[in-house]
DNA sequence: AATGGATTGTTACGTTTGCAACAAATATAC
DNA sequence: GTATATTTGTTGCAAACGTAACAATCCATT
């Protein structure tokens, strides 16, 4: 009888599994929100949010900040450019580099989406309860440092 | 000047973003381990781990437990069957249903991989420090309940 | 200034993914 | 008992993905 006579590993208590499930759930719910609002994909939202926060970055910068593969960034930037939400400006000293900034339209949409994000997080905090939310945050912060 | 004059949203402190980064990092590192060990993909590992823990499940069960799309499950099961790591047995009463169990070979490999998983988690706990690790776990548990 | 090596961003290609349609079997309603 | 709906698992297809190769540019060593 093949079986779970003595399961060596309990997935439900396995940290990578837990992290993934939580991240997936949160990410998918939030993605549904901004997808409905403006039809952005996840890479596009990430690029927009990074640019909105930092103002002017190169594609490489965006990749570093948002931990996205450079081809993902390249395609997201292209999509945002097609929407006229950002503009490129080649560096005058290093012509490989393109400086990316949000257009007025892009900023307007960024503000709306950032507000959605904050609302979402606030609801998440309420659902979880402030103590546990902060606890989770502290754990994640520790993780980032290590 | 387009800019981050007053960034509405700090991605680094945004919970969904944090969760994703942590999950991605952990998941990728662990995936590298079992990929090197036995060449399993992530869906295949998940199906194997779920079966190893619960003994005998249907494809739908695996999907529910591991939060995978049913096509992903279908393909992972196929791959594991090709390796002779699991066998199917159609239910005698409901012939749509297939009961999946690990073969002896599958169980052997499951045990080895489960051990890798436990080792990985132990190292993770050491890296993070037990207090923060447990804190993170508590936060994730709360999340699962909500 | 010239050759070799790095870096920036895009493109080509094979793989993986999820949605939708599907066949097969069962359950439900009339 | 037949028709309709639901469930289980697979497959076709188009979109998204990452690896690798690439062109363009810059830097370093000579």
Oligomer: homodimer
Give the radius of gyration of chain A: 19 Å
The fraction of residues in strands of chain A falls at: 5-15%
Number of spatially distinct domains of chain A = 1
Look at the structure and give the CATH class of chain A.
Mainly Alpha
First-last Cα distance of chain A: 43 Å
Largest interface: A-B, 68 and 67 residues
Question: Helix fraction of chain A?
Answer: 55-70%
Estimated structural class of chain A = mainly alpha
Overall pLDDT of chain A: 91
Low-confidence stretches of chain A: none
What's the helix-strand series of chain A? HHEHHEEHH
> What's the count of strands of chain A?
3
Shape of chain A: globular
The main sheet of chain A comes to: 3 strands, antiparallel
- CATH homologous superfamily placement of chain A: Winged helix-like DNA-binding domain superfamily/Winged helix DNA-binding domain
What would CATH call the architecture of chain A?
Orthogonal Bundle
Number of helices of chain A: 6
């Amino acid at each position: 009888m093949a079986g779970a006579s003595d399961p060596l590993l309990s997935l439900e208590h396995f940290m990578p599994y837990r992290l993934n499930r939580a991240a997936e759930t949160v990410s998918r719910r939030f993605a549904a929100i901004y997808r409905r609002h403006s039809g952005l994909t996840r890479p596009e939202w990430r690029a927009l949010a990074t640019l909105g926060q930092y103002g002017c970055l190169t594609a490489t910068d965006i990749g570093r900040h948002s931990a996205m593969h450079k081809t993902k960034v390249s395609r997201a930037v292209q999509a945002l450019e097609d929407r006229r939400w950002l503009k490129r400006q080649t560096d005058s000293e290093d012509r490989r580099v393109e400086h990316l900034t949000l257009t007025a339209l892009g900023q307007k949409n960024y503000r709306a989406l950032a507000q959605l994000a904050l609302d979402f997080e606030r609801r998440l905090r309420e659902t979880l309860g402030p103590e546990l939310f902060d606890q989770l945050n502290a754990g994640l912060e520790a993780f980032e440092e290590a």
